[in-house]
Design a protein that fits this description.
By secondary structure, the chain is of the alpha/beta class. Strands 1, 2, 3, 4, 5, 6, 7, 8, 9 and 12 form a ten-stranded parallel beta sheet that branches. The protein is globular and about 50 Å long.
């Protein structure tokens, strides 16, 4: 629930950001940026509450896309094999474990460019089963047609993840097998079906500060802000074109999160991929910058994630508690 301050500001949510405004925010002195982001965060959220989501790979490998960061592309030799969709019992077991660990949302990912209707025949029962556990449901399946989005909504889907990844200007350097407009069209189909949108991007793929600004502009200037905004730090996977990408300064990630919080104040901002390579101090700064959601569990699709025990220990040090748990 929004605080009274947030309720008063609800009408001022903006969808008209300019690149220069966002570049200016990204370049603010660090202390000033943190103050502004934390002030906005406190107006809309409990600053010591963290939403936990768990992500399960329900169908790995064999994707025809050429996303330069992705180990699941059939174009790259990364050791990821193509497998069929998991059965309901396997998914339910994982979902029950996630719920017992404090996760409130269960996300399922399948490596498709765009699912066929017969693919959805296998996914819909998984959504039904997880929904019956009382958890929020999320899937990421690639590009969707409007009728497919409506079918997923009827199945009880709460969130659909479809990231923009980077700026429109830099996008062609990372992906050539689908256009930026393709991604926007899927987001539109999801929104029109009444499904919450989960959409963010990746920091560290060789983009410039202006590219990061334009990614945030693309997200915040959508007709409605995504309810969930995952900000990923590139995980450099051997065999992908970005395996030798230069390491990212963690302050670039922190600044991106802070500006996302300022621009999309009512959205959950999720500190996503790359946490295993980050120190506890860096993660703490990300939370202070306005991140209030993480992926919780030991694997994100095909890349490692911090141990749940490590996350719980960090929350204890920071005096944070999962959403719905008293701190």
């Amino acid at each position: 629930m929004l605080s009274s301050a947030a309720s008063a500001e609800q009408s001022t949510l903006r969808h008209d950001w300019s690149t220069q405004e966002v570049v200016t925010l990204l370049n603010l002195p660090f202390a000033e940026l943190m103050y502004r982001a934390q002030s906005v965060h406190r107006a809309y959220f409990n600053p010591v509450s963290i939403q936990l989501s768990t992500l399960l790979n329900i169908k790995s490998g064999g994707c025809s896309e050429d996303c330069a960061y992705c180990p699941q592309s059939a174009r790259y030799d990364t050791g990821v094999t193509s497998e069929s969709v998991l059965d309901v019992d396997t998914v339910l077991t994982a979902a029950k474990q996630a719920k017992a660990g404090g996760a409130t949302r269960f996300c399922m990912g399948a490596a498709w460019r765009s699912p066929k209707d017969r693919d959805l025949d296998k996914v819909v029962p998984l959504i039904n089963a997880v929904k019956d556990l009382g958890m929020e449901t999320c899937v990421t399946l690639g590009m969707l047609q409007p009728a497919q989005a409506r079918r997923l909504k009827s199945a009880g889907l709460d969130y659909y993840n479809h990231n923009l990844d980077t700026s429109p200007e830099y996008y062609g350097e990372i992906i050539t097998t689908r256009t930026y407009q393709d991604r926007l069209d899927t987001l539109s189909a999801v929104r029109e079906a009444g499904i919450n949108v989960c959409c963010g991007g990746i920091v560290g793929m060789g983009e410039t500060l202006t590219d990061r600004a334009n990614l945030l502009v693309s997200l915040a200037n959508l007709p409605s802000h995504p309810e969930s905004v995952p900000i990923n730090l590139l995980v450099r996977v051997e065999g992908t074109p970005l395996e030798d990408a230069a390491p990212t300064d963690v302050f670039d990630l922190i600044r991106t999160i802070a500006v996302a919080r300022i621009m999309m104040p009512a959205s959950f901002v999720r500190l996503s991929a790359g946490r295993r390579e980050m120190t506890e101090e860096a993660q703490a700064w990300c939370f202070f910058a306005g991140a209030n959601s993480i992926f919780y569990g030991e694997e994100l699709l095909t890349t490692p994630n911090p141990l749940a025990t490590a996350d719980r220990a960090l929350f204890a040090k920071l005096g944070m508690a999962p959403t719905g748990v008293a701190g």
